[in-house]
Amino acid sequence: MTVSDFITPPPGLFPNAPAAAPAPERETHHGLTESGTHKFERPAEPTRPSVAPPAFFAAPLGAQPRQTALTLQREDGTQHVITAAAVFGRNPAAAGEWAGALPVALPDAEKSMSKTHAGVRVTAGGSSIVDLDSTNGTVVLRPEGTEEELVPGMPVSLRSGDVVLLGKVVIRVIS
Fold first, then answer.
1. 158 found inside a domain
2. 129 near 152, Cβ under 8 Å?
């Protein structure tokens, strides 16, 4: 048995030990060289083009997809797709904080809905509805059976499957 048959400790582990001579390089059966520390030289990895990950990988695991539009459906089947902000009522006016919002007039023979009854906002973080100080109020009915009466000026989140009552006018959240 020779000295090269033993494991050589890393330098500095034993301060008084004599330094070991470097092991000679030898060729392995794959044509690669092997050093005394048993590290193999490998060919460089092939370069891959830089490509952005698909959008579904952009969000953290478990995160909900970002919302870009909200589809609301009236009782007669008419759908309204909201992509930013909209105000709903019998004859809505997009003014003040809601300036620039899409005005959506809804038929209401009983006049249970105010002229400008509620506002809806859609952002990347989700969608919400706000009662705009209506006379007969706004209620969100959740699919699990809970009901949330809106406090004027306080936004409430909207989810697919919710039913919104604007006075007596019914709107369903489709997506």
1. yes
2. no
Asked if residue 143 lies in contact with residue 161, where contact means CB atoms within 8 angstroms, the answer is yes
Assess if residue 161 is contained within a domain. yes
Q: Where are the beta strands (DSSP E) in the chain?
A: 26-27, 33-34, 70-74, 79-82, 85-89, 102-105, 118-123, 126-131, 138-141, 147-149, 156-158, 163-166, 169-173
Q: Which domain does 96 fall in, by range?
A: 70-173
User: pTM here?
Assistant: 0.62
Q: Under 8 Å CB-to-CB from 45, ≥6 apart: which residues? A: none
Task: Label residue 167 left, alpha or beta by phi (over 0 means left) and psi (-120 to 50 means alpha).
Answer: left
Q: How confident is the model at residue 96 (pLDDT cuts 50, 70, 90)?
A: very high
